[in-house]
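Researcher: Please predict.
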Amino acid sequence: MNKLKDFIYDKSDILVALLILALAGTVIFYRIDTILAYPETFSAEATSIAPVQEPVQYEYPTMSAVGGDGASGTAVTSGTSVATGAATTGSAAETPELISIYINYGESLRVISEKFVAAGLFESTDAFFSAVDAANAGTTIKAGNFIIPADATPEEVIEIITKPGL
């Protein structure tokens, strides 16, 4: 009895490995047709997949004014327009168009200035540099997505981009 027990203890790892191989061989033997048919099945599924659709442009919902009792607040009227200032009792006055500019981490001031000139917020890169120098904000411009009213002054633009973005 001790010889059998010693044999099992000494050879159990090998026996377990052989048992696993026998089980895997049995599964492969009975499923070989399915395994070999896989490339045909895969190509048939790949051709039946619907083509990729174009991205959908979403329209943001209309929101009511904040502080409608005459207090100062922010009103979002149609689409992406935002108006700041005193809310009126009826409809909001003209709402400025918003411009979204994304500043990547580590971008140079030259690249950032070109984005703002292309968006129409500054007349030239020199005007951007002058506004940055006047605000002493050369090293405090943050990375992120910034929503800026199209009629913002250069000082307001610099103030917006020196705060953390979205």
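Model: The chain is about 45% helix and 15% strand.
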